[in-house]
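WARN retry 2 of 3 for item q-0093 after timeout on previous attempt; input resubmitted unchanged.
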Amino acid sequence: MVCIYFILLSVVYSTSWAASLQDVDSLLQNLFASYNTEIRPVQDQGQPVLTSILFSLISINSFDEIAGVISVSGGLILSWTDERLTWDPNAFGNLTETTISQNTIWRPNLFTTDPLSKDFSVGHQDFKIRVTSAGHVSWSPGGMLRGLCIPNVSKFPFDTQTCKIEVFAYGYTPNEVSFIMLSPTVLLTYFHQNSEYILTGSKASVQHLMSDIAEFHFILKRRSLNVLVSIILPIIMLSLINPLVFILPFSSGERSSYSITVLLAFTVYMTVVSDKMPESSEPMSYLSFYILSLLAISTIIVITNVCQIRIREKEEGSVPQWIINLSFLLKSNRQVRDEILEDSDMTQQNTEMNHPSTIQAPIDEIKDRKDKMADIQPPGNVTWNNIAKFLDKMYFIIFQTLIIVLTIVLFVLTAS
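OK item q-0093 returned
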C-alpha cells in the first residue's frame, strides 16, 4: 500500500512539473501572437461573456455614520471562459495552467459606486490572472472597497445597519457582460469581526440595469454593551436620584443646592456623552430625546423646589381655602380608598368562608364611609408648612413615576 502511494505521488509530481521554462515561453508566444485585449473573448460577439462573481469579506474597517460610507477589506472572485486561450497540454510539456499579467488579456473593467474616492476602479495592476488549458480564466482583485450605507440610528445603541457595496462592469451592457452570482451570501472564510459592529448576515445579488451591478449587502449590529455601561446606566441612575430632593427636610438647607447640582451634572454629562453618540440627525436617536426629556424634568424639578422653599418659608397670610380644600380632598380620597379596599378584601374573605351573616355589615360600612365623605370638612388650622409637606410627597411620586415610565419606553422602543 505504501509503495502504491509513493508511485502515485511520483506520477503526480512528474506530471505537475514536467513543463519547462521553454514550454511556458512557447505557450505564451503562441497564445498572444495575435491576441487583442479590446475584443470580448467569445466567438459569437452577439453573446455575452458569462462571468461568475463572488465576494470574500476579510474585515470591516470603518463605518462613517455622518457621510454614510462603509469601508471593508475583501476580494472579488471572478471567472469566465476565454475561447482564445485554449491549448493542448501534451504539446507544451503537460502544462495545464499558468498565471499571466491581468493587462495581458481581456477582462471586465470593474468599478464601485464609492462617493468619496477619486479612483473608482477595483483591484491593483499587479494582480495576476490564472488561465487553464480549457480557457477557464480566474481573476481575484481585492483591497479596500467602500460603498454607500444610509444610517438609521433611531434605536442607538441597539441599532442595526444595512450597508452595501456595488460593483459593475463599466462600459458593458448586460448583453455584453453578464454577471452570475454563485452564492446568495458573502464568503466569510477569512473574515475577522469588527470591534464596534457584529456582522449578523449578508446577501449577494445581481441587478440587471444599464450594466450588470453586483450588490453585496452587509447587516451590521452595533455592540451595545459599552454604550449601555458608560452612557445609559449612569444617566438612569442620575435621573432616579433627582426626585429625592423632595424627601430632604427643609431644615437641612441643602434642597436648592442638591437640585441645582443634579441639573449641572446632567448638563456636564450630556456634553461628554454627545461625543460618543452618532451625529446623524435624520432620524435622531430615541436616546437623544430621552436625555433631553430628563434634562427638562431636572429643570422643572429645580423650579418646583424653589417654589416649595418659598411656600415653606411663607408665614404671613392665611392659606387660601381652595388650596386647603384641594389638598384635603386628595388626601381624604386616598385614605378612604385604602380603607374601602381593606374592607373589600375582608368581604371577599368572608365570602370564601361561606358566612353570609358577616357579609352585609362590611358592605354597609363602606357605603356609610362614601356617604360621609361629602360631610368631611378640612381643618381650619392648615399652614403653609403642611401644604409644602403634602406637595413634596406628591411631587416625588409624580417625577419618579415619570422618569421610570420614560426609561421603560426607551428600552421598549430601542430593543424592539
